[in-house]
Design a protein that fits this description.
The complex is a heterodimer of chains A (about 350) and B (about 375). Chain A has about 350 residues and is an alpha/beta fold. Chain A has two domains: about 5-215, Peroxisomal Thiolase, Chain A, domain 1, CATH 3.40.47.10; about 230-340, 3-Layer(aba) Sandwich (Peroxisomal Thiolase, Chain A, domain 1). Helices cover about 30% and strands about 25% of the residues of chain A. Chain A contains ten helices and 13 strands. In chain A, strands 1, 2, 5, 6, 7, 8, 9, 10, 11, 12 and 13 form an eleven-stranded mixed sheet that branches. In chain A, a hairpin with a 4-residue loop joins strand 12 and strand 13 (about 330-340). The longest helix of chain A has 17 residues, at about 245-260. Chain A is globular, with a radius of gyration of 19 Å. Chain B has about 375 residues and is α/β, with parallel strands linked by helices. Chain B folds into two domains: about 5-210, 3-Layer(aba) Sandwich (Peroxisomal Thiolase, Chain A, domain 1); about 225-375, Peroxisomal Thiolase, Chain A, domain 1 (3-Layer(aba) Sandwich). Chain B is about 30% helix and about 20% strand. Chain B has eleven helices and 16 strands. In chain B, strand 10, helix 9 (about 275-285) and strand 11 form a beta-alpha-beta unit. In chain B, helix 3 (about 60-75) packs across helix 5 and helix 8 crosses helix 9. The chains are: A alpha/beta (about 350), B alpha/beta (about 375). Chains A and B meet through strand 5, helix 3, helix 4, strand 6 and helix 5 of A and helix 2, helix 5, strand 6, helix 6 and helix 7 of B. Chain A: Keywords: Acyltransferase, Transferase. Chain A: One of its GO terms (biological process) is fatty acid biosynthetic process. Chain A: GO terms for molecular function: 3-oxoacyl-[acyl-carrier-protein] synthase activity.
Amino acid sequence: MTGLVVTGWSSITAAGVGEAPPLEPLPAARVTDLFEEALPEESAPVLTGFDVRAHLGRKGTGSYDRATALATTACGEALKAGSVEVNDATRGRIGVVLGTTVGSFRSTSDYSRDTLVQEKPYLVNPLLFPNTVMNCAAGQAAIRHGLKGVNSTVAGGPLAFHQALRYAANALERGYADVMLVGCVEEYSPHRAWQTAAARRSGPTGEGTAVFVVERADAARRPGSTVQAEVLAVATAFGWGDAAADALAGCVLRVLREAGVTAGEVTAVATGDAQEYEPAARALGHRPERVTVSELYGQCDAATGGLSLGALLGRRLGGVALLTARTRDGGVGAALVRGPS
Amino acid sequence: MTALILGGATLTSLGDGAATFTALLAGDAGPVPLAHGDPGRLRVTRGHHVPDGDPNTPFRASGWLTRCVREALDASAVDPARTRVACVVGSGLRELAAVELLDPRAVPVQRLHFAHAVRRAAPEIGEVVTVSNACSAGGHALALAQDMVELGDADAVVVAATDAMTESMLAMIGRVADEPTDRVRPFDAGRTGVLLGEGAAAFVIVAEGSHRPDQRGAALARVLATGLSCDAHHETAPSAEGIGRAMRDAYHRAGRRPRETGLVLAHGTGTALNDPTECAALRDVLVADGGDPLITGVKGAVGHTSGVAALTSLDVALRCLRTGRVPPITGLRTPLPEGKDLRLLIGEPAPTPGGLVQLDAFGFGGVNAVTLLERP
């Protein structure tokens, strides 16, 4: 893949809108006060008081579900942070790719549930149907910000951000766009909280979004843009069960080779869960500092990779960092990112 | 650069690809009484089901995907154990039908991704990427698959798609139609809306030039390019301008002219908005360049197969190229006023025209994918 540069970014977590994800646990809120439904946990690191209307106004935002509201807001903030001018000359060349698990699990489930429990004719609201389609957030972000380039949604759970980065690299390399917004999003809802609990995963359920403005590293960039990081290489692979660790180590070696970076240059490893660290350290041959998103922000699923990168950029990453990801069905991924020199 | 399609497999309500094409040529296939939910309450009384038993069985979409991927690999004689094979899956609804069973124990969230289903067909397949781009997902998957083989990310890519109808989607189409639709009539003046289909498809593609002579049979078609665009206009209503941009992007990428196209496999959903909008875009881009393509579409016979739609059309296009016959638009009687000057194929099959074949696929979110093919 071609190398990418990040020329702007924004994230939304419990730390706030546009605030970098901190390198410390996010504050937990009493989620039992926020939802009528029963929950498997009393508190979780969710964003309270987020109101999409405060950022995007009332018009057109009424039908947004939370995932769409978070992602669409973050896309706008990232465009601003990167000083991306969206006008009739540029909008056809600006694309969006978002990573997701199932879109808004809540929208999908509630809509489906309505079809089962409402009296006849099923009183489902056709205006809300688009929320159940998993590319809703990407489509709404394009509508809101007038972005007419390639628009895609990659469904890969915790691996989705790595896959979205590769999708963006491909779209830029093949000339589908000049600028891509690459992001990922996950919303907190009782649906996800129960899913996390049913899967017996440790820690609370989290939420958040991060969106990055990326361009080709080897092409002329927009005037006035500032490189905040370089994405040197991204690789994904697969390993069943015990083979997942070897597959992840293999991915790490692959990105080092592709990027032309020595293992000694890697100063930090951002992992989705703590188990990714050992295979990564084995491949590197040393033990750099570890940042683990699930320990700091809860189980953020598809948002994990973007929040990892945000956490690294927020601390003014020096040197090269490795971002790893792993899914429960054996998918693994690695990305190498260099901070500004 | 271009890619070749070596082999494929398709499943629709009418059966496999051969059975589907035979029924399309006969022109009389239609929907059956709806087997999902309560038709009276949904206000949807008919559909195009894959006849494989109880529609409330979870993971039907995954099962179809496994079957099509296996058959496509066999047909193309590509062995994932001996060569680097990746898979791109397009889907609009993924396993939402399983989620609708409302039993979290039955639906582990990781099974909503299709890696599991693909590896049941071929455990050696490396990367599995699921593109969830509504009803143009298959077209977007095809674009990515071509890029991957041409850039050398994989030696071969299985481009696949799968979708099973869901109760929530049925409820939605029931709510937007004035009265229950009896059948899909693409481009008809009296069209009353869409009915859902379901199924899966998979095709193996390789970069042109990497095609080894020992691979069985000749390539089925050359994939020139897929143009992509986003309307950024409305979540559900299509835009002729946005669709036109995807068409122009496809011709630009392929280095070809719109007038070179002889056959269009239209998206043609039989809805109030899609059909006139698609006609306008075809006129703006193809007719304006001096083209006069023959236009057909499949949704009157197999319903709207959601994220599979582009690949359902692809299979029919490959058979048009191979057999020299184009099936008519099932369900079309009187063309809509906006299509009067277009060559919409009514009634009887026609000989396959020379030139390029254009496949249209448009989805919610204003996401458009237009693919160009030709004889290899």
